């Protein structure tokens, strides 16, 4: 007896087998979403930022007989200009991160929104900041108005979804590579590490972000440093000329001239760089949305063939109506996961 299209029929039977599915589950995917609105606004640098930590880095105390300490590096990334800010964090506690965040705000200006992952120090710091703001709001009207003017929101990405925070994850990768190249196997002191971090920060903020055509008439390549200080940070300063008196321009006209230069940089930025980000390198096909009530398996790291099974309780759509995050109820509790961590179980 000869079965026509035997391979296709066997594959269809295996795909519908629940027992076989657990050995080779197929994770979900969805078309890549559009850039968030926070990436497209012409905000002040670091007004909307993302943050992450990497490390540890061994730091010497400079005392004979004392073991080096473990410290960590905080990476802040601006959503508007993609500029990078680096700072040292001595441990992973919430109090230490709040001190680092305070230094960042004092140097870069007040925040409006801060994105981060669900690390315990970030969650604890957000809770402590909320408690402090609630304490301010409970007092007189002056403190309440000050707290409202200087408050900011903290947005957490879904757990186990680093691709959603790819903006600061890529900055962490670049900073880590540059730092390892600069340090090698050396154990630096804290002031030496801070100097190296400033050098790494200058290199990252001077990287070209718009493809250069190679023509000498194109002018200088736009970098994050142009939106911070008006020029790149790692090149030599241009030769300065003696100031020439110019009585034809008033103070208002000079201010308008400076504003026009800034607008030109932002126009070049939004035309060349932001349009290049709209290109989808993967996840280019639309698929059907995940619906509530579907039975799925949750992919967990370092767990082989023992994935949790649960029911989709809530499907969270994005701005374009596509579901990329879902809330799953399992016997162990309720989980919020990206759909790239979910595999629907064939029960039909």
TrEMBL record:
GO terms for biological process: DNA integration. It comes from Drosophila pseudoobscura pseudoobscura (Fruit fly). It comes from the Eukaryota. Residues 41-232 form the Integrase catalytic domain. The lineage of its organism: Eukaryota, Metazoa, Ecdysozoa, Arthropoda, Hexapoda. This is Integrase catalytic domain-containing protein. InterPro entries: DUF5641 (IPR040676), Integrase_cat-core (IPR001584), RNaseH-like_sf (IPR012337), RNaseH_sf (IPR036397). The gene is LOC117184939. PROSITE patterns: INTEGRASE. One of its GO terms (molecular function) is nucleic acid binding.
């Amino acid at each position: 007896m000869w079965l026509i299209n035997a391979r296709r029929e066997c594959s269809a039977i295996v795909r519908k087998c629940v027992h076989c599915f657990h050995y080779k589950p197929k994770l979900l995917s969805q078309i890549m979403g559009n850039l968030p609105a926070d990436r497209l606004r012409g905000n002040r640098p670091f007004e909307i930022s993302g943050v992450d930590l990497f490390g540890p880095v061994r730091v010497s105390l400079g005392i004979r007989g004392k073991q080096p300490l473990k410290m960590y590096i905080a990476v802040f990334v601006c959503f508007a200009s993609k500029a990078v800010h680096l700072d040292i964090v001595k441990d992973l506690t919430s109090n230490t991160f709040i001190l680092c965040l305070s230094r960042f705000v004092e140097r870069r200006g007040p925040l409006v929104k801060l994105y981060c992952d669900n690390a315990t120090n970030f969650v604890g710091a957000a809770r402590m900041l909320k408690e402090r703001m609630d304490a301010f709001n409970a007092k007189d009207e002056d403190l309440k108005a000050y707290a409202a003017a200087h408050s900011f929101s903290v947005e957490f990405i879904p757990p186990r979804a680093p691709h959603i925070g790819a903006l600061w994850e890529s900055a962490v990768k670049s900073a880590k590579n540059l730092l390892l190249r600069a340090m090698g196997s050396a154990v630096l002191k804290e002031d030496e590490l801070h100097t190296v971090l400033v050098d790494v920060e200058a290199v990252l903020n001077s990287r070209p972000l718009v493809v250069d055509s190679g023509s000498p008439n194109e002018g200088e390549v736009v970098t994050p440093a142009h939106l911070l200080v008006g020029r790149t940070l790692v090149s030599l300063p241009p030769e300065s000329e003696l100031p020439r008196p110019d009585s034809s321009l008033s103070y208002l006209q000079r201010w308008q001239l400076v504003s026009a230069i800034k607008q030109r940089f932002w126009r070049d930025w939004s035309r060349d760089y932001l349009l290049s980000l709209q290109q989808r390198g993967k996840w280019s096909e639309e698929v059907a949305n995940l619906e509530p009530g579907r039975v799925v398996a949750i992919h967990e790291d370092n767990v082989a063939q023992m994935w949790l099974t649960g029911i989709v309780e809530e499907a969270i759509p994005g701005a374009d109506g596509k579901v990329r995050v879902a809330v799953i109820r399992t016997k162990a509790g309720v989980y919020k996961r990206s759909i790239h961590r979910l595999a629907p179980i064939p029960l039909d």
